[in-house]
Amino acid sequence: MSKPKLPKTEFDAPWKQILDIYFEHFIAYCWSDKYDEIDWKKGYKPLDKELNKIVRNAPVGGRIVDKLIEVYRKNGAEAYMLIHLEVQGNQDPNFEERMFVYRYRLRDLYKKPIASLAILIDRDSQWRPGIFREELWGSSIEMKFPIIKLIDYKNRVEELEASTNLFATVILAQLAALEKQSLDDKLISKINLIKWLYNRGRKKEDIITLLIFIDWVIALPTPLEVKCREVISTLEEELHVNYITSFERIATQKGLEQGVKKGESAVLLRLLKHKFKTTIPENYHQQINNANADELLILAERVLESNTLEGVFRA
Questions:
Q1: Same domain, 225 and 300
Q2: Considering the domain boundaries, does residue 101 fall inside one?
Q3: pTM above the 0.85 mark?
Q4: Which residues pair with 143 in a beta bridge?
Q5: What is the number of domains present in the chain?
Q6: CB of 216 within 8 A of CB of 8?
Q7: What is the pLDDT of residues 94-124, one digit of tens each?
Q8: 193 and 143 share a domain?
Q9: Statement to judge: residues 196 and 130 lie in one domain
Q10: 3 state SS of 135
């Protein structure tokens, strides 16, 4: 009998969404010495559209998530943070060059200092890029950048589990995804992580957002996803809650598509509420519910580009 096929795990889409929603939590937990320098009362603004202008024709490739975030320092000055997330899982010989190219292009665009930060989610503890150098005939240029290596948190699981910071759950999920396990053990890890999340007393919207992230990064073959759903459904009955329908995957292809669509819709609504700081009107809810996968993707892109809620839902 052939073994069930493990679906390809995708890290880039869920990480883009999670950084948009939990950017402040991310800085507080992973780059805490910079947290107090930012005026969080003024919020932050993802600048994906602006970043796309400078990376579209970049000469270096590779599978990577790039995020440009605008924040304000407590002295009132604007600041730009360029985050590179390596999602390939392998050493990329062009990584430092990419960091350098994007940095100087953004510096040229904004005429202001850029803070570059790298997040690495690979398994190689020895790979730690942090500097780009180029020299010829006495002329040289150098760029240094800090890195956050998620496997460095592997020995800090108890700290992560005790933390009230929502981003700690993101790290726990990614660590579980990176663990080399049998499919049955991966199923157990996923169930245990979800059970732990349910017992943390989080807000419903945060539980759903984190469930979607967990479901994305800890992907299982459909039969095991069904087992996971059955166990969590029983738990929900005991706790008198109902979260799993926002991310469930079931055995039939029709059910799979519906589960994914529900998850995408939930994240889209969360992004809208987060960016525009307002209640989403019922007619927009209906438009989201009636949208297919391609239409949801278009709406999500408009969230990043538009300055108004109406602009997202323009005809």
A1: yes
A2: yes
A3: no
A4: 132
A5: 2
A6: no
A7: 889 888 988 888 888 888 888 999 998 888 8
A8: no
A9: no
A10: strand
- Give yes or no: residues 194 and 144 share one domain: no
CB 275 within 8 A of CB 300: no
Least confident of 19-33, 132-146, 219-233, 295-309: 295-309
Q: Are residues 189 and 298 in the same domain?
A: yes
**How far is Cα 171 from Cα 119, in angstroms, rounded to an integer?**
11
Decide if 243 is inside a domain.
yes
* pLDDT at residue 138, as a whole number: 94
**DSSP H helices in the chain:** 12-21, 23-30, 32-35, 48-55, 95-110, 157-162, 167-178, 183-198, 204-217, 222-239, 253-276, 282-290, 293-305, 309-312
What does residue 117 show for φ and ψ, rounded to 5 degrees? -140, 140
Structure tokens, 25: 């939590």
**306, 297 Cβ separation under 8 angstroms:** no
CB atoms near residue 5 (< 10 Å): 9
pLDDT in tens, 61-70: 444 578 889 9
Q: Which two tokens stand for residue 91?
A: 């050493």
Rounded to 5 degrees, φ, ψ at 114 are -120, 130
pLDDT score recorded for residue 215: 85
**308 and 267 share a domain?**
yes
Neighbours of 285 (CB within 10 A): 13
**In-domain check, residue 78:** yes
Supply the range of the domain harboring residue 304: 184-312
Helix axes 95-110, 48-55, angle to 10 degrees: 110
User: 209 and 254 share a domain?
Assistant: yes
Determine contact, residues 165/200, Cβ cutoff 8 Å.
Answer: no
Q: What percent of the chain has pLDDT over 70?
A: 82
Q: Are residues 308 and 245 in the same domain?
A: yes
- Residue 38 DSSP label: B
pLDDT higher than 80, residue 54: no
Buried b (16+ CB within 10 A) or exposed e, 109-131: eeeeebbbbbbbbbeeeeeebee
In a domain, 37, yes or no: yes
